[in-house]
């Protein structure tokens, strides 16, 4: 079963067409958030500060989609009174776009920190943080693919991936927090601490998305 | 009596039969006429045979068309260019092998109809399709397509990622982001469908990158020997008498020119690679800066009998890299002087943002116009003046005259200017002044850098 096979009948009702439109918007928003995340990664680890400008524009679009999808979901739910999987789909969408929007916001925050961070020489933790960011992006991609495929096993799968990010967060936190004999200001360490925190939150939101996908299919929350 | 009734009945029956036959033939003729106007209707054959022949003929034709269609489909499927066909609801109807490879469409089987966004999460591609459909005009779009790996649903890969609790580093992270530079061509099709061709620009991008790298490496290798040649020549000049002295002097001039070119090339490469790193911002007074540049160029201007005309000297502060910005004005004014005839002037005009401007400070711009009194740019050169080593034929001939060889630019001047201005977040345009016809370079710089930099 896939997301689009939800509404493939010969006689399509108005509801099904509207549902299809919302699905497309959610996927579009997902693509934008993924792009934001990628830009923040480039900004942080490839020092591509142009990304900081691009992301502001992206964030506006993401916000627009967020509001639009939420409104459409609410309209469909009240006017069409869907049941069973359609209802789960819509209510999950309403929650899921919130998660997506948060990820986009965090990505924008990350670029702001990256711009502050360029002044300082690269920290030795940076490689590991980069791997963490890559991994969080992989989680986002996995949950978006799961959303497209309506994969019931996604929640569990992404949760397992999330464990890796949590462990990395703990370890990086320890490395940063218990560092001794620091030369100069603490800003870079402060920033790195915030960055790993943000990445960890982003990974959490990815897990939420995947779990909501599982909920759409099975109707069980885990 | 009975015989008469029988005959009458028979007559009516035969009459009806004949009339039916006539109607039937008439209809057959009409069908034949309407379906194959060009067919040769052999009158010796019966109508039924004609229809049969016509049907066979049409069937044959249909098979030929079908064959032709299959050949085309096969060709497009194997084409070295990606092709996608999207229906009016943004569902993927069909795509060829190359498109699947370029866009990494790995969850789709031919015959399956799915939303394109489910398979390819590319906002740019989505926009291209939407624009093509709305405008009903062919559209072209360049973008970098990034592909983030995901954990597949296939069972064997689930097991591979099972080690969620194992240490982070031993995880098989394939999370590297791959990217490919694409050019998409959208064509509107009937019924709201859209056809997309995808061209892979990645080899081209890589080629131009490797070319730039190779040239930078070469320039780097040339720098040291050139410096030592120049040193040796300088030493020789002091010890030689004419005519040998003159030769060595010329050699020294040319060597210096060459090492300047090499240095500028390296500068340019560095600016391009790392535009933000290589700048050091400070508050600069533009008036002071321009006056100091004018002072440096005064000897050259006097030699050429050109005046640098800087009328409204208003003090304007901006955030910039002072030495780089000096280089910008040196290059621009130097160019202006060289291209102006004797007893003429180069105009420098600075337009500061009005103090009561409502725009926030980081959006305020300073406009600097530099207009010379020469003959201006050749129209066909205008799109290329900022390219590295680009020279119009006119200055190429000037270059060969030995007397001005040291004054001749390296061909990198404007390229450097453009890189520096861009690194500052500004822009530069070249045109000919509508009134004087001279070369007109307009630099637009932001007053302050966004505090992020």
Coarse morphology of chain A: elongated
**Outline of chain B:** elongated
Measured distance between first and last alpha carbons of chain B: 121 Å
What's the helical proportion of residues of chain A?
A: over 70%
Structural class determined from secondary elements of chain A: mainly alpha
Brief sketch in words of this structure:
The complex is a heterodimer of chains A (222) and B (453). Chain A has 222 residues and is mainly α.
How are the secondary structure elements laid out?
The complex is a heterodimer of chains A (222) and B (453).
Chain A: H1 14-45, H2 50-80, H3 84-117, H4 126-149, H5 154-177, H6 187-218
Helix pairs in contact in A: 1-2, 1-3, 1-4, 2-3, 3-6, 4-5, 4-6, 5-6
Chain B: H1 2-35, H2 47-78, E1 82-86, E2 91-95, H3 97-102, E3 114-115, H4 116-119, H5 123-135, E4 139-148, H6 155-160, E5 177-188, E6 194-200, H7 202-239, H8 244-273, E7 282-285, H9 286-304, E8 306-309, E9 317-320, H10 322-339, E10 344-351, E11 365-371, H11 393-400, H12 413-423, E12 427-432, E13 439-446
Helix pairs in contact in B: 1-2, 7-8, 8-12, 9-10, 10-12
């Amino acid at each position: 079963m896939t997301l689009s096979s939800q509404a493939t009948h010969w006689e399509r009702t108005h509801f099904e067409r509207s549902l299809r439109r919302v699905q497309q918007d959610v996927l579009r928003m997902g693509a934008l958030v993924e792009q934001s995340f990628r830009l923040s990664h480039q900004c942080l680890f490839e020092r591509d500060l142009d990304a900081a400008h691009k992301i502001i524009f992206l964030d506006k679009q993401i916000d627009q989609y967020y509001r639009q999808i939420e409104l459409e979901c609410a309209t469909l739910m009240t006017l069409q009174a869907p049941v069973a999987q359609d209802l789960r789909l819509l209510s999950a969408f309403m929650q899921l776009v919130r998660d997506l929007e948060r990820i986009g916001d965090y990505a924008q925050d990350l670029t702001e920190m990256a711009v502050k961070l360029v002044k300082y020489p690269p920290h030795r933790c940076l490689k590991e943080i980069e791997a963490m960011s890559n991994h969080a992006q992989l989680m986002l991609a996995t949950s978006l693919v799961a959303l497209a495929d309506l994969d019931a096993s996604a929640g569990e799968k992404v949760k397992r991936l999330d464990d890796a990010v949590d462990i990395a967060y703990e370890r990086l936190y320890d490395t940063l927090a218990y560092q001794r004999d620091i030369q100069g200001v603490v800003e870079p360490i402060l920033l790195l601490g915030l960055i790993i925190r943000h990445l960890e939150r982003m990974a959490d939101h990815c897990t939420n998305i995947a779990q909501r996908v599982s909920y759409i299919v099975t109707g069980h929350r885990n | 009596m009975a015989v008469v009734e029988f005959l009458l009945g028979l007559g009516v029956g035969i009459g009806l039969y004949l009339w039916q036959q006539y109607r039937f033939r008439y209809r057959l003729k009409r069908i034949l006429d309407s379906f194959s106007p060009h067919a040769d209707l052999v009158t010796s054959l019966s109508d039924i045979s004609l229809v049969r022949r016509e049907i066979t003929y049409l069937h044959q034709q249909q098979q030929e068309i079908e064959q032709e269609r299959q050949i085309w489909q096969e060709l497009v499927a194997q084409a070295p260019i990606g092709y996608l066909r999207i229906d009016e609801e943004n569902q993927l109807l069909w795509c060829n092998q190359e498109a699947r490879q370029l866009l990494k469409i790995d969850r789709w089987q031919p015959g399956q109809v799915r939303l394109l966004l489910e398979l390819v999460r590319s906002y740019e591609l989505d926009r291209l399709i939407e624009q093509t459909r709305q405008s009903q005009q062919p559209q072209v779009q360049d973008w970098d397509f990034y592909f983030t790996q995901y954990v597949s649903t296939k069972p064997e890969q689930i097991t591979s990622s099972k080690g969620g609790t194992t240490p982070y580093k031993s995880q098989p992270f394939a999370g590297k982001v791959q990217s490919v530079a694409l050019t998409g061509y959208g064509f509107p099709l009937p019924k709201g469908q859209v056809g997309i061709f995808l061209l892979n620009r990645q080899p081209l991008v890589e080629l131009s990158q490797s070319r730039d790298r190779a040239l930078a490496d070469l320039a780097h290798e040339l720098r040291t020997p050139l410096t030592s040649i120049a040193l040796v020549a300088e030493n020789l000049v002091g010890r030689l008498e004419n005519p040998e002295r003159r030769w060595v002097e010329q050699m020294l001039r040319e060597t210096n020119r060459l090492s300047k070119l090499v240095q500028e090339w390296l500068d340019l490469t560095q600016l391009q690679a790392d535009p933000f790193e290589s700048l050091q911002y400070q508050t600069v007074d533009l008036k002071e800066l321009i006056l100091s540049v004018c002072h440096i160029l005064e000897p050259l201007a006097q030699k050429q009998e050109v005046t640098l005309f800087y009328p409204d000297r208003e003090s304007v502060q901006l955030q910039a890299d002072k030495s780089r910005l000096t280089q910008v004005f040196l290059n621009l004014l130097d160019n202006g002087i060289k291209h102006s005839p004797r007893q003429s002037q180069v105009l420098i005009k600075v337009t500061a943002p009005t103090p009561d401007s409502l725009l926030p400070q980081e959006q305020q711009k300073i406009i600097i116009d530099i207009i010379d009194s020469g003959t201006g740019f050749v129209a066909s050169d205008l799109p290329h003046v900022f390219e590295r080593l680009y020279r119009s034929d006119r200055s190429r001939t000037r270059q060969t005259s030995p007397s001005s060889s040291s004054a001749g630019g390296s061909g990198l001047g404007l390229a450097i200017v453009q890189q520096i201005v861009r690194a500052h977040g500004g822009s530069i345009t070249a045109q000919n002044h509508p009134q004087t016809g001279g070369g007109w370079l307009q630099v637009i710089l932001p007053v302050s850098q966004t505090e992020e930099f």
